[in-house]
Amino acid sequence: MIFETLNTYVDFVEDIDFKDILDIYNSNKEFLKAHMDKEKVDIKWLEFEINEMKKIGFYSCKIKDKNTLETVGLLDFGMKEECYLSLLMIHNEYKNKGYGKEVYKGLEEYLNDKVSSIRIDVVTDYNKDVLKFWKLNGFEVKDEIKLNWAGKDLPAVLMKKYLIL
Q1: What residues in the chain have per-residue pLDDT under 70?
Q2: CA torsion 95→98→101→107, rounded to 10°?
Q3: Is this entry keyworded Transferase (predicted)?
């Protein structure tokens, strides 16, 4: 286990978790449509994505509810001098129940003595609540960028939050 929060465990994705992780991606149809022009991804895409993330030093993690042991989300991040939070995604059935905020706060606590800042790139023509979520969690817009995800160029903002070391 990498870290835990009051209600969740966060740990590395293993092959046995692929079906659950695939279900999480596919439950977020609006995300897939906006980011990839797809309504669904398959297991080959997921295997490729996780392997590519691993090659560049990122951790692909599952988020499990402590009480039900259901996989409720996923988290991808890399750590160097700063943490690059690539993805925090909650299964559509579990959204608006506090998992995203709780897991983010847990990640921040985990990172607090390891990195000086957290970076996230947020697509701006997707869901306005996503940008609002990160601002409420202390992130500031630093730059407007183009983000290439799965071969698609997306308008985005680079956001950062500085941690106290």
Answers
A1: 165
A2: -100
A3: yes
